[in-house]
Design a protein that fits this description.
single chain; 437 residues; 20 helices; 13 strands; globular; binds pyridoxal-5'-phosphate
Length: 437
């Protein structure tokens, strides 16, 4: 399978190149040249397959030509050694709980998959790959834990100082080994800009092998299609003649794009809701046809504080930048912090289901936009305890169960390197460690 750049100015590449480079030389994002329909037999067997086996069959459509079958199956099975259960929150509204992985957020899926794909390609050559990851919280922890201890890979996590919750931070600043955390005196967009500049820098390109582990990377974003299939499989008996709607709390839009791809592979989904916090550039695009990036604003759903969502380029590409076609499949919502708090509290008091602030955005979108002939599934993208202060501030202290796995992380010792937002400083840091093995 070949991968092309959404900017169409760079040559097509193979999977190995797409995964090890991350971003295309023309700054576009790589896309698979084909999105293939799954056979009717696959859908007939959906409820009798395990999550792992179903995901292997989906993965095979993308990666089957580039990896031996046994290796691909092993990678998928190792990635998904946890479940993503569906919980009924209220009539016709379901929560797909994506927080059962090691860092208790959905990004574990893509990060674990990508780490294994990269390790497979690297096992055939010597040398060191440097993974750069900008994070507003959950990406950093998922990538750092997904890649922890993997030989031949060094991970550099850039995060905005003071803008990440302590629990999120402790999941990547105290790991040591091949993981370094860089505390950037700026916003998430500044972190993302530093990473993008590094990929464009000729000197760095010559001296070191750099790749991204943001949802820019095809190996991180494509596996996110797996759990959409799993959600529909779990809901199978309840669907009857209703249409399925997914509500996706969106920041960089990797999750939502993976859902669109699942739909293109034949998954019976009628439409998607892009649920946003106050960072509303895509919401505005859906309503006006104009896409105008803005600096991100800080919200209580901080993993979605993105002012220039990278995967929007993929959405445009999938639909030939046709605004009407995009609006047929995706509708948008945007909520203030106040509205997010209100929905989290209302859901908790009415149903006893505890949302995290990101899930609350998507839940509210379903409450407002779900039609009588539809079943809604929202992605609950992280465990509420990851946003302890915020959630306790809404429903009261002592009401948020703290999983042991998160308590373990809190016992670590924070070690970071502080840098500013100037690219030259970041570059010096990278070059000083470029020969480090
Ligand atoms: C990353 C993240 C999101 C946003 O996902 P995108 O794929 O970037 O749109 C939503 N919720 C949580 C908890 C996240 O960590």
């Amino acid at each position: 399978m070949k991968y092309y750049s959404t900017n169409k100015l760079s040559p097509e590449v193979d999977l190995r190149t797409a995964v090890t480079k991350g971003l295309a030389p023309d700054r576009g994002l790589y896309m698979p040249e084909r999105i293939t329909l799954l056979e009717p037999a696959f859908f007939d067997q959906l409820d009798s397959m395990t999550f792992q086996e179903m995901s292997f069959k989906v993965a095979h459509k993308f990666f089957g030509e580039d990896l031996p079958e046994g290796i691909l199956r092993k990678i998928v099975y190792e990635t998904l050694n946890f479940d993503t259960p569906l919980a009924e929150v209220e009539e016709d509204i379901y929560s797909l709980e994506l927080f059962h992985g090691p860092t208790m957020a959905f990004k574990d899926v893509g990060a674990r998959f990508m780490a294994r794909i990269l390790a497979y390609f690297l096992s055939e050559e010597k040398g060191m790959v440097h993974v750069l990851v900008a994070t507003s919280g959950d990406t950093g922890s998922a990538v750092a834990n997904g890649f922890l201890g993997i030989e031949g890979i060094r991970v550099h996590v850039l995060y905005p100082k003071g803008k990440v919750s302590e629990i999120q931070e402790m999941q990547f600043v105290a790991l040591g080994q091949n993981i370094t955390a860089l505390e950037v005196d700026g916003s998430f967009d500044d972190c993302q800009a530093l990473v993008k500049s590094a990929f464009m820098d000729q000197v760095l390109q010559q001296k070191m092998v750099l790749t991204s582990a943001n949802s820019i990377n095809v190996a991180r974003f494509l596996p996110q299609a797996f759990y959409y299939f799993n959600a529909v499989a779990q809901l199978r008996t309840k669907i009857k003649d209703k249409k399925i709607v997914f509500s996706v709390p969106s920041g960089n839009f990797g999750n939502l794009t993976a859902g669109l791809i699942a739909k293109m592979m034949g998954l019976p989904v009628s439409r998607f809701i892009a649920a946003n916090n106050s960072n509303d550039v895509v919401f505005k695009y859906l309503h006006s046809g104009l896409y105008q990036t803005r600096p991100s604003v800080v919200t209580i759903a901080n993993a979605m504080d993105v002012g220039d969502p990278s995967n929007f380029a993929r959405i445009l590409d999938l639909y030939g930048a046709d605004h009407a076609k995009i609006c047929d499949v995706i509708s948008g919502t945007t909520y203030t912090d106040e509205q997010i708090r209100e929905s989290l509290a209302a859901c908790y008091h009415a149903t006893a289901y505890l949302l995290d602030p990101h899930g609350a955005v998507a839940y509210r979108a379903l409450k407002e936009l779900l039609q009588p002939d539809e079943l809604g599934i929202f992605l609950e993208t992280a465990h509420p305890a990851k946003f302890l202060e915020t959630v306790e501030g809404i429903i009261g202290k002592g009401n948020v169960p703290m999983p042991d796995r998160l308590l373990e992380f809190m016992k670590g010792e924070k070690r970071t390197i502080e840098i500013g937002i100037e690219f030259e400083e970041f570059k010096r840091y990278l070059l000083s460690g470029s020969d480090q093995k």
